[in-house]
């Protein structure tokens, strides 16, 4: 992702093949959700986008009122997890689709920007500029 809101895609030989334009702010994180063949992008413009296949049009967009700093996939609970300022949100997948449900779970245990989210098996780890690392156990 780029500061100008674009996403540049290269092939395995590092040849540019596509540029995606949709974000109005700095693209802060990208995640490729392999099972659904979707690219997920987040930005400081508060937009979370899923991009389908190799197309240049978004599959789905969710606009939040705050910048999004990081994104991860929780395979145990089939959720997209995002890091915000002082909070973490988990969006469920609409059953039988690859669409994100607009309702989400939110935790607010950090006191600064959540810069990293990592999902390993049933655990979600978050790290923040508040110098804390928090582990959440996510039972199915």
Rounded to an integer in angstroms, the radius of gyration calculated over CA atoms is 15 Å
Distance between the termini: 32 Å
- Kindly state the mean pLDDT as a whole number? 88
| Alpha-beta classification | mainly beta
- List low-confidence stretches: none
Q: What is the beta-strand fraction?
A: over 45%
Task: Please provide a written account of the structure.
This protein is mainly beta and 140 residues long. It has no helices and 13 strands. The protein has strands at residues 6-10, 16-21, 27-33, 38-43, 47-52, 58-63, 70-74, 79-83, 88-93, 100-107, 114-120, 123-128, 133-137. The strands form four sheets. The chain has a four-stranded antiparallel sheet with strand order 3-4-5-6, with no helix packed on it. Strands 7-8-9-10 form a four-stranded antiparallel sheet, with no helix packed on it. β11 and β12 form a beta hairpin. It is globular and about 40 Å long. The mean pLDDT is 88.
């Amino acid at each position: 992702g780029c500061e100008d809101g674009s996403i540049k895609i290269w092939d395995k030989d590092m040849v540019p093949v596509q540029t995606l334009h949709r974000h109005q702010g700095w693209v802060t994180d990208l995640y490729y959700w392999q099972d659904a063949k979707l690219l997920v992008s987040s930005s400081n413009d508060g937009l979370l986008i899923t991009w389908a296949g190799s197309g240049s049009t978004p599959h789905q967009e969710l606009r939040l009122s705050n910048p999004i700093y990081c994104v991860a996939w929780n395979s145990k609970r089939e959720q997209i997890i995002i890091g915000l300022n002082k909070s973490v949100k988990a969006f469920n997948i609409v059953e039988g689709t690859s669409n994100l449900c607009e309702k989400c779970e939110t935790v607010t245990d950090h006191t600064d920007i959540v810069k990293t989210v990592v999902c390993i098996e049933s655990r979600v780890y978050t790290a923040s500029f508040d110098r804390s690392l928090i582990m959440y156990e996510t039972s199915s």
